[in-house]
Design goal:
Blueprint (H helix, E strand, L loop, with lengths): L2 E8 H7 L1 H9 L3 E7 L8 H6 L4 E4 L10 H16 L4 E5 L1 H10 L9 E6 L10 H15 L4 E4 L2 H7 L7 E3 L8 H4 L5 H7 L7 E6 L9 H10 L4 E6 L5 H11 L31 H5 L7 E5 L3 E5 L2 E7 L7 E4 L22 H7 L2 H21 L8 H10 L8
Parallel strand pairs: 1-2, 1-4, 2-3, 4-5, 5-6, 6-7, 8-9
Antiparallel strand pairs: 10-13, 11-12
């Protein structure tokens, strides 16, 4: 069976963009492998994710930001070991740094019948870049193009540039497509959404989509806005950070007020809004929140609103409470059905998705934890199941801890 290898800088890039390519190669009769740096992925395990579609994943410690580094040298050696372990009939590489490493390392394998294709998702030396950039990166690409059987570009400017290189087979294929009809049909309250972003009626929002990294050249807009010096312009960047240090360096250099900022830490993984809920003695609903109901066994009151984000409502909705200043969360929501001697606190308490959107925040979960801990203490002292704890006594204990439970 013929064997194909797809290479990119990160496991996230493989998963986000190249799964269809892998499946197409499988349909063509190839045994498919892929290689990337999976260490930066926190939302899935690369080996398991690609194995689930019949693809073998190989860890290569590619750098996304430093072409001339020990990481790149290490990645070159790892990739050479992979080539010694397997014979690949077809290698398709994406992203700049792996693009250079893979083509240089695979050059001799081409004599054994291996076809090497490189897809550039945007050249590092575009029109308007500095002479230094054009000389350095342009020379590297010219050198690597001698070792490439085919080059795919996704825009006409790159196509024109690559036609000047040594590779004889250069193609222009439109890049990642967007089904705009899905956005045309999206229903969203524009004024309310602007308000959620902190925009006033007079603000002019400029949106740029792309990861927060120096190579995306956000500085052009930032510098232009600084020259306009009009506070009504608000620059919004929709994208992820390329790397912790890259984001920090970018903000420190270009964002006003960050000149003396110190990088402390960043989240280890992407947060998840909602997961499973228990089925408790009481099932709290969005209607309870909207009506600002405060049950007799309330152990926490909230003044939070509800919002929705799902496939049936991609634009999202923001729903404010209407019949009061707050709503109550009953103790029964912490008591699961069918299980004894158990209290549950956090965003997983007994509630539907709409109510859950109003009680999922950290301050809410802290309140549930305090109530659950207090109830557990009363349960242990009296040797009773938490379900038998006197709610009046529990509420009194919470109020002694300065917990506000409504009323005057």
């Amino acid at each position: 069976m013929k064997r194909a290898l797809i290479v990119a800088a990160t496991g996230g890039f493989l998963n986000g963009f190249l799964i269809p390519d892998m499946k197409l190669l499988q349909e063509m009769g190839y045994e498919v492998h892929c290689a990337a740096n999976g260490n930066s992925v926190s939302t899935f395990v690369p080996e398991e994710r690609f194995a689930s579609i019949g693809v073998t994943f190989h860890q290569i410690d590619f750098s996304s930001t430093s072409p001339l580094s020990n990481d790149s040298l290490k990645a070159y050696k790892q990739y050479k070991e992979l080539l010694n372990q397997y014979h690949f009939d077809f290698v398709h590489v994406h992203t700049p740094i792996p693009g250079a490493i893979v083509r240089i390392a695979t050059r001799r394998k081409r004599k054994e019948g291996c076809v090497v294709v490189y897809t550039t998702h945007g050249l590092t030396f575009p029109k308007g870049s500095s002479l230094k950039t054009k000389i350095v990166y342009g020379s590297v690409e010219w050198f690597c193009s001698w070792m490439t059987d085919g080059i795919i570009t996704i825009n006409k400017e790159d196509y024109t540039q690559m036609k000047k290189m040594a590779c004889k087979n250069v193609y222009h294929i439109n890049g990642v497509g967007v089904d705009t009809s899905r956005y045309h049909e999206c229903q969203i309250d524009r004024d309310r959404y602007r308000e959620s972003l902190g925009l006033s009626e007079s603000d002019i929002a400029i949106l740029e989509v792309g990861e927060l990294s120096t190579r995306k050249n956000h500085k052009v807009i930032i510098e232009a806005l600084s020259k306009i010096n009009d506070k009504h312009y608000v620059f919004l960047i929709c994208g992820k950070a390329m790397s912790n240090s890259g984001t920090y360096d970018f903000l420190k250099k270009y964002a006003a007020g960050f000149e003396h900022a110190v990088f402390l830490d960043t989240a280890d993984m992407v947060g998840i809004r909602e997961s499973r809920h228990i089925k408790g003695k009481y099932w709290m609903t969005g209607e309870d929140v909207l009506a600002c109901r405060v049950p007799e066994d309330t152990i926490a009151v909230m003044a939070t609103n509800m919002d929705t984000h799902n496939k049936d409502n991609p634009g999202g909705s923001f729903i404010t409470i209407q019949n009061g200043s707050y709503f109550g969360v009953p103790y029964r929501c912490l008591l699961p059905q069918g299980v004894e001697n158990l209290l549950v606190a956090g965003r997983c308490i007994s509630a539907d998705a709409l109510a859950g959107s109003a009680i999922r925040m950290i301050p809410c979960c802290l309140a549930f934890g305090q109530a659950a801990g207090t109830a557990a203490t009363l349960s242990l002292k009296k040797h009773i199941d938490p379900v038998d704890v006197c709610v009046g006594e529990l509420r009194a204990c919470l109020e002694k801890q300065d917990v506000y439970l409504g009323g005057e």
